[in-house]
């Protein structure tokens, strides 16, 4: 097998499902890349990208169970592993029978952002600094800070969803200055 990883490409712990779980995807893998990977085996009816702690996992849902079985069977017997952008992708059946995209939470833009501040100096970021950074995008109604296992977090409430979306798109993944 072409894979140099000691990690198995397949895990047969789940019964067959029309939803496949993919691991070890490249950073910010797109829905189009997932559809392209599944297209030779059948109609991909739904995807969920960039899930998991490292955002390197995804789900593909086929229209029919036999299409998912065909994809798993093909890569289980192929000398070439499934790949996206040259990176070996690990496949397994999901424990889900369909992908549910919960459109009532994170997928729908709202006027409140959940901000996670990572790193050793996360606790040094004050509400005043957060207000200064986020008010550059519009009026900030409220800021609430708290600690979770993910790190130091804040909820930042704007006047409207457009302002929150603008702030998110501009600041996502960026460092906050001291």
Automatic annotation (TrEMBL):
Q: Does the keyword Hydrolase apply?
A: no
Please give the InterPro entries that the UniProt record associates with this protein.
Nucleotide-bd_a/b_plait_sf (IPR012677), PTBPH1/PTBPH2_RRM1 (IPR034792), RBD_domain_sf (IPR035979), RRM_dom (IPR000504)
Q: What keywords were assigned to this record?
A: RNA-binding
Q: Which Pfam families match?
A: RRM_1
What range(s) does the RRM domain occupy?
18-96
Q: What PANTHER family does UniProt report for this protein, alphabetically?
A: MATRIN 3/NUCLEAR PROTEIN 220-RELATED
The identity of this protein, by name, is RRM domain-containing protein
Q: Which organism is it from?
A: Hibiscus sabdariffa (roselle)
């Amino acid at each position: 097998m072409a894979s140099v990883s000691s990690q198995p490409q397949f895990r047969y712990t789940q019964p067959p499902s029309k939803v496949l779980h993919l691991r070890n995807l490249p950073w910010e893998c797109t829905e189009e890349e997932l559809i392209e990977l599944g297209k030779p085996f059948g109609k991909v009816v739904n995807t969920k990208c960039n899930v998991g702690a490292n955002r390197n996992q995804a789900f593909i849902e086929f229209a029919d169970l036999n299409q998912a079985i065909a994809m798993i069977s093909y890569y289980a017997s192929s000398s070439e592993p499934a790949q996206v952008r040259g990176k070996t992708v690990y496949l397994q059946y999901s424990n889900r029978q369909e992908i549910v995209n919960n459109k009532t939470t994170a997928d729908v833009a709202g006027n409140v952002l959940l901000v996670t501040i990572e790193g050793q100096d996360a606790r040094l970021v004050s509400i005043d600094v957060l207000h200064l950074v986020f008010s550059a995008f519009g009026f900030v109604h409220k800021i609430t800070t708290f600690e979770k296992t993910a790190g130091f977090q804040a909820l930042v409430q704007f006047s409207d969803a457009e302002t929150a979306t603008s702030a998110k798109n501009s600041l996502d993944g960026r460092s906050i200055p001291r």
